[in-house]
Each structure stands twice: as C-alpha cells, then as structure tokens.
Amino acid sequence: MAAASGSVRLQRCVVSPAGRHSASLIFLHGSGDSGQGLRRWIKQVLNQDLTFPHIKIIYPTAPPRPYTPMKGGISNVWFDRVRISNDCPEHLESIDAMCQVLTELIDDEVNSGIKKNRILIGGFSMGGCMAMHVAYRNHRDVAGVFALSSFLNKTSAVYQALGQRGGELPELFQCHGAADQLVLHAWGQETNAALRSLGVRTTLHTFPGLHHELSTDELEKLKSWILTRLPGETGAQKE
C-alpha cells in the first residue's frame, strides 16, 4: 500500500500571499490529519488564517497507508513506525520514500522561481519529524526548519547524516508543551540538544501547561521566526 515515489502527487491546500510571491512555507500535519485540517486548526487557534504578504503557504496531505500504531489501520501519515517512542528503530523505507515525494514538492517551488534559501519546511508532531529528515538529510540549503511537539528517535538517520557531513545547516525552531503526554517534552529536549551538538543552530520554546496541541502564543512566536528567516522585499535580495 505504501506509495512508491514518483507515483504520488500530494494533495495540497495552498494559502496564496496577498502580494508578490517571493518565498514559500511547507507546513506538514501530524499523524491522521490532513493539510486542510491543519489549516483549519491553525485558523481556529489564531482566529484567522496564517498569512504573509509575500509567502505562499503549502499544507500538503500525507497519502493514506497502513499505520502500525493503529494495528495496521489506514491513516494519513508521513511514515510508519513501530510505536510513538524515541527508543525504537525508524521505519526508514517509508521515511525515505516520503523524502523523495516532498523533494518533488520543493522542486515545484524552485521551478516556479523561488530560490531554495527562500523555502522553509516544518510541521506539527510527525510532520516536524518528517521536516527534519527532509531538510537535514536532503535539503540543507533551505531557509530553516521548524518542529512543533516533535522529536527524533535516539538512533535517527538524521543524526547519522549530520555526523558524516559538514557545511552550513538550516536553523531549527522548536516549540513543545511541558504537559505533552503523547510526545514527551523530554524527547523534544533530547532532539534539540543532539542536533545542537551536531552543529545545528537551535531554539526551543517550552510552554508550561500545554498538551499535544497548538497555542496562540506558540503560533505567534513561529510567525515572528518565519519572518526572520523569510523577510519581505525590503530585507530580501531582489534578483
């Protein structure tokens, strides 16, 4: 059932910029959600869409596949895993296939005239994990990565890839609720510390009392960070 790369074109929910499109943001949903669902959730939390005058926001939907934590039930997930834990092996076959599919999405933006260093990728929960795989293993020239309520497994291929190659790395912006009982805050902290030790510039914002969810304060901090990585025309180089 897992789709082979090249045969999948992800469904995309797109929020177009009000002004001239000079940057793109790819926002990946958590397990079992959809691009449209994530957009609706953010709109509910902010009481308005997440929008920028110059940034196109793309909310892709993961293709349905059997998901082991649901006893093989079909779900919109970016990859499979044995369980939601940081001490089990990654299901690299499904992660790598999806890295290729998301590469095609990035390539579409580049082909439309957006430079790689004007593209951000990130996500919530599983989406944040997927974004870290895409950026740190395959696309180190993107503008940055964000991971909300996310983690990497202790033996992640991301760590292995970063340990083998040097060079400039995209900055990581992380947010995590201290009361998260599904993806423990400690897992987010460990991920942050491990990536920093491998040369990634990282920020981790902790939100006391926040569970496995999005908050207004978190999204406002994310918006501010996005604009530091993808400034408008006054801050961007015109070419």
Instruction: Please give the domain count.
Output: 1
Shape: globular
The number of helical elements comes to: 6
Order of helices and strands: EEHEEEHEHEHEHEH
The count of DSSP E runs of length 2 or more, i.e. the number of strands, is 9
Unreliable stretches covering 5 or more consecutive residues: 1-6, 235-239
Helix content: 25-40%
Could you tell me the mean pLDDT?
A: 93
CATH topology: Rossmann fold
Alpha-beta content class: alpha/beta
Main β-sheet: number of strands, strand sense, barrel status? 7 strands, mixed
- N-C termini distance: 44 Å
Q: What is the CATH C level class, in words?
A: Alpha Beta
For this structure, what is the CATH homologous superfamily? Alpha/Beta hydrolase fold, catalytic domain
The assigned CATH architecture is 3-Layer(aba) Sandwich
What do you see in this structure?
InterPro entries: AB_hydrolase_fold (IPR029058), LYPA1-2/EST-like (IPR050565), PLipase/COase/thioEstase (IPR003140). It comes from Molossus molossus. It is found in: Cytoplasm, Cytosol. The protein is an alpha/beta fold and 239 residues long. It has a single domain, classed as Alpha/Beta hydrolase fold, catalytic domain (Rossmann fold), CATH 3.40.50. It contains 6 helices and 9 strands. Helix 4 links the parallel strand 7 and strand 8. It is globular and about 45 Å long.
Topology (elements, then pairings):
Layout: E1 11-15, E2 23-28, H1 35-46, E3 55-61, E4 64-67, E5 73-76, H2 92-111, E6 119-124, H3 126-138, E7 144-148, H4 157-164, E8 172-177, H5 185-197, E9 202-207, H6 216-229
Helix pairs in contact: 2-3, 3-4
Keywords: Acetylation, Cytoplasm, Hydrolase
Subcellular location: Cytoplasm, Cytosol
Protein name: Lysophospholipase-like protein 1
